[in-house]
Prior knowledge:
The structure holds two protein chains of two kinds. Chain A is of the alpha/beta class. Chain A is 33% helix and 18% strand. Chain A is globular, with a radius of gyration of 19 Å. The model of chain A has no long low-confidence stretch (mean pLDDT 96). By secondary structure, chain B is mainly beta. Chain B has one helix and eight strands. Chain B has a five-stranded antiparallel β-sheet with strand order 6-5-4-7-8. Chain B starts with 15 loop residues before the first helix and ends in a 5-residue tail after the last strand. At the A-B interface, helix 4, helix 5 and strand 5 of A face strand 4, strand 5 and strand 6 of B. The structure holds zinc ion (ZN). The site of zinc ion has 8 residues of chain B, from loops. Zinc ion is lined by residues 32, 34-35, 37, 46, 48-49, 51 of chain B.
Amino acid sequence: MNIVIAGAAETDHLGKLPHYSAIGLQLEAARNALADAGLTKDDVDGVAAVGMPGPVQVAHALGVTPAWLDGTGVGGSSFLFHVRHAVAAIRAGLCHTVLITHGESGRSHVGAGRFGLGADSLLGQFELPYGVFGPATTFTVTALRYMKETGLTHEQLAEVAVAQRRWAHLNPRAMMRDLITVDDVLASRMVAYPFHLLECCLVTDGGGALVVTSEERARALGVRKPLVHVLGTGESADSPIVSQMEDFTTSKAFRRSSEAAFAEAKIDHADVDHLMIYDAFAHVPIYGLEDMGFVGRGEAGAFIAEGHTSPGGRLPMNTNGGGLSYTHTGMYGMFAILESVRQLRGEAAAQVPDVELGVVLGNGGMFMSAATLVLANRRP
Amino acid sequence: MTTSPKPAPKPTPDTQPFWDGTAAGELRVQRCLTCSRHYFYPRPSCPRCGSGDVEWVTASGRATLYSYVINHRPAPGFQDDGPYAIAVVELEEGVRMMTNIVGVDITPENLRLDMPLRVVFEQRGDVRVPLFEPAGALR
Ligand SMILES: [Zn+2]
């Protein structure tokens, strides 16, 4: 059974939205995605959303009585997991049409408690006592080890931000659009050495949603937008706290989830026209390119610096501007999927010509979990 | 007892022996009696072979610097420290843990990866946490 993304949309606005609650963002995104598909909430019988407020509240607020729910909450990669789980559920006959929603008041903190863990949690006992202060001081702790072992330079790390800003410059919805240089990045405020402000993601409010169903049902319901086929999916995890990650120079979860997705889709790297790699911080796309096998060990920094992922390059990556320049609500994975869908439909702001096959790599937590999707605008 | 403004961990039944160790001035980790490997963080069975036949041992306290960041935006309780190192160290026993580096000016030049370190302890509320200081030429 071919499974497709039949609807995909973001909230009307992204950025600083203190007049929206987290659930409000999810519901706006959900309505937009259903409208995009030409469907109504009565066509939906499955709902997936992260943790609190979670799929029950989303379904209830929308007026959907679900036959299937998924509340998998593994940070920013959750929505890729939801797509994978929805594919399996639809194929198993547990439900027919799944709505996956994301909405987070990441900047304004309206209607959602701030992320926090007790002093008796794993993080509370073995990382928080050392003054970690959000992802900028924990996700980043692997980078110096990677730099020592591979020779990645500070300038190459900065090039990641420069490359993504080139895409954001072409995207009117991106929060940061002015072109920047390596010198600009290295001159920006030091947040957590070796990371400068421009090597860290934005903090925004926003949301997005997807409608996943079978190709057969999408056609029967008269979905008008080009269908995006889910050709392969994978998921994995490494460590719940970054200090216990298996190896600071490579993500086991990136490797495992991508191997699974590529194998299921029966594709090779040369088939990939467009790539999204979750970029919470500048080093993450470097790990992603290597762990997914697009370049060899230690080669990603030079690959990005040479412009291969920039506009006009041979591997267009993070074409919305990414979490560094487009938007980052705290769980960016939904926005990575949505940009891949837009590129495959030919409706992206910075459209890459002739995109038929895209790959999305999502990260959760601080290298905690990962999922990979292989998407295409043609049948498998 | 000093009252540090910094976050203090709260032990659980699984981790109590670790924190009893730090209170006694010892760094204790677990070791699997089946496969002979040390492991960290505290848990009731070996993550490598699955054996529940495990023991607590006192580590040497010697470690090397595996990786770090220098945080310029202090967490609550750390405002008076200036930029401070959030580090991951690798113990002689082969396990890694997050910590702070103390006893040296916190600069990239002073913090060379793989440099030798040794454990020291700092009181946080009712609990003592392990920190690390240079063990080599800098001291
Ligand atoms: Zn064992």
